[in-house]
Amino acid sequence: MVDWSSLETVFLDMDGTLLDLHFDNHFWLEHLPARYAEQYDLHPQEAKDRLIPMIMAERGSLNWYCTDYWSERLSLDITGLKAEIGDRIGYRPHVTDFLDALRASGLRSVIVTNCHPDPLALKLRRTGLAARVDDIVSSHQLGKPKEDPEFWHDLHGLAPYRAETTLMVDDSFPVLESARSAGIAQCLAVLAPDSQQQARARHPEIPCIHHFDEILPALRQRSPLPSVR
After folding, report:
1. pTM more than 0.90
2. Exposed / middle / buried, residue 32 (Cβ in 10 Å: 0-12, 13-18, 19+)
């Protein structure tokens, strides 16, 4: 499923790949509509009926992920509202074991996320995730989402990599298709990003897993890179 011997770098999505997407789904589909209803004196269902089409219209764009954009558009403190349910932020199954195995293997691990820097900071505080990887890049630093094929070209400026020795792991099929189009040699899809929802159907062309325990044994068999003295 993954040719570990050919890799130098592993790019990792965060939400839905390393962290349980239940937090984000609950926020956008339940918590935000409830707070929006309170703010504008609406029935909860009326708030959902207004918000969901508005949010979905931005899908795939940087605005979809941008806390500043939604805070201004809705006149609400989105990051503050996310902090209200911060106790829902958590790892997906087997993630810490996987990250420890990546580090032991000598592979370079980089989180490449569409998450805005403000909620990113909240999630890092809650999880300690930054200490488990080598680097973190937010698409907001580059001004375009991972769905944009040009993102991968610009990423070289922040996290230099060789496409032929790189793996991208993500729960978003459009992101993985974008990465493949940009020449990333290996891609892997996560089918169970939200612990409270059913797993999705497999992608017809991209290898898929439900959880990282499916690839841990092969990763652990990879010999670590020789140390530089």
Report:
1. yes
2. buried
